[in-house]
Specification:
Distance between the termini of chain B: 95 Å
Helix content of chain A: 25-40%
Radius of gyration of chain B: 38 Å
CATH architecture of chain A: 2-Layer Sandwich
Distance between the termini of chain A: 22 Å
Strand content of chain A: 25-35%
Radius of gyration of chain A: 12 Å
Number of strands of chain A: 6
Structural class of chain B: alpha+beta
CATH topology of chain A: Transcription Regulator spoIIAA
Number of strands of chain B: 20
Oligomer: heterodimer
Number of domains of chain B: 3
Strand content of chain B: 15-25%
Shape of chain B: elongated
CATH class of chain A: Alpha Beta
Structural class of chain A: alpha/beta
Largest sheet of chain B: 5 strands, parallel
CATH superfamily of chain A: STAS domain
Chain lengths: 101, 565
Amino acid sequence: MAITSQPSADGQELTIVIQGRFDFGAHQEFRDAYERINQRPKRYVVDLKGTTYLDSSALGMLLLLRDHAGGDHAQIRLEHCNPDVRKILAISNFEQLFKIA
Amino acid sequence: MSARLSILIAEDSAADRMLLSTIVSRQGHRVLTVANGLEALALFEQERPQLVLMDALMPIMDGFEAARRIKLLAGEALVPIIFLTSLTEGEALVRCLEAGGDDFLAKPYNRVILEAKINAMDRLRRLQETVLQQRDLIARNNAFLLDEQRAAKAVFDKVAHAGCLDAPNVRYLQSPYALFNGDLLLAAFQPSGDMHVLLGDFTGHGLPAAIGAMPLAEAFYGMTAKGHSLREVLREVNAKLKRILPMGMFCCATLLNISFQRKVVEVWAGGLPDGYLLRGDGREHTPLVSRHLPLGVRDARSFNDALEVYPLEMGDRVLLLSDGVLEGSNAEGELFGEQRLLEVLAANRDDQALFDEIQAALIRFRGTQQDDISLVEIGVVESSSLGRPPVPQGGSVENAPLDWSATFEYRGATLRRHNPVPQVLQLLLEVPGLRLQAGALFSVLTELYANALEHGVLGLDSAMKADARGFADYYRLRTERLAELVEGYVRFDLRICPEPGGGRLTLLVDDSGPGFDGQAVMARQAQPERFSGRGLALVRQLSERCTWPAGGRGVSVEFSWRLEA
């Protein structure tokens, strides 16, 4: 599992890329990805293209990011979800909180 | 400088023994010497030296045999044995190691190499000692933790099983430590005899998950016993969890209200895998799909408490499961999944065997027992076959007020959110003679309130509920109209009068609607195959008298009681 983050050229958007399993083991790395940056981006993208699995603690981590990014005003897009990941997000009805693409 | 060790030297040549002994004691160690394997064993037992220098070839018992036995005696502790040998061919040296030797030293002895080897072996010995100490510490801590969990589970079971999981129509299966996987199962009767069920799964494991379960269980049982509706229980439980759980922790849950009298189930599902409404007559199963965010995510303002309502038939069953069932994975990392579960459901012939079949399928798939599954199934049975909910506790009989009347009117916006039935019931249960009739009273209040609200205030026609589709439309419309409600009222008029040896309650419920023809409603409701409209018939059965005052406004019911002297 590896998590990398990349701010856009204008610093307005931060893309967090998650490879492999997204579960409790990723807790610290995921937080670091959005806390240890200098700018304060307006929008966040979580790229799940390389994510093979996502568990309920990962859902919790996404909520933590949402809180960090402004709660109800947060702009977060979850991108490139494979069908398994999409299913887990759907069961928890996370499309009500995140843009899922 | 290395530590002072006690070192046993087994060497049959007196000269060599003397030489080694001198070298080793000059290095600061305590030296014990023997001349053969047998003596080495005896002295080892007595003195427990920390390291052994062992000549390979000795009379009486050679070094190989002595090494084997010393290793046995030493048990888990590492007592390094360095063979002293003039043997040089590979095979002989291999024999030294096979007998349990840790290293060897060729004769003639080199003082520097001997010292280095003793130090190296001492490092290994210490490492082993540390590993053993830590292992024992972990084992002790683990035993302690398991003890604590057992105690915590016993406390929790008292709270969680306060309800009616033991009712004859409820079957459930929970892995013994499901609680510490964050799973939670609660069930309780409302005063009306409706059953509230909650299957929940907290994110995370262990103590945090178990702790969140306690306030949830308290709120669920407290409110259900007082007659609060499922919606109110939901809102309260969600608000409570939102308040106490740290951000990022929440509880996936499905809640049910099963009315055995009205033959409906209300469902709120947020985050758990599909449950199923299993039809007793061979019709296709209805999946109960998660429509909401889990509990503890939304604040009270944006929480969605919309319920889905399904008609029930005798013999139907409602099955709920935790994600542990679907997420059981085999050696290849493949998940058990929904499809395999559906196959088990389709193949099931005997209700009683379903849980066993699900478990068996999981074991076949995984090769081992799964330790984090929760399953619950509630059968639809005659309400009379279920035990009566307990009689609520109340104050003393002597001081109870016995001659009073009161009117409560709930208007507009209040009706949108608030269910007045528990409040009115609570007041009536102050009357000792009514306490024994709490169940009937609650049902009657609930039915009359539902009638007044749905038909009177919201103008819904129960004829809509003629088929399954209309049934769903009805409840959708109810939610929509209620959300937009501004005008209108429901009024409860209570009159308690003393009578010789007892007393009587007269209760009139009316509303702002256009009124209705009670006789005609009763006639319609006589058709038993209908999905709806058992309400008024129920009220008639449960109350002593039930009348429609002239003008068709409201319904009046009476309950009386006699107090034993």
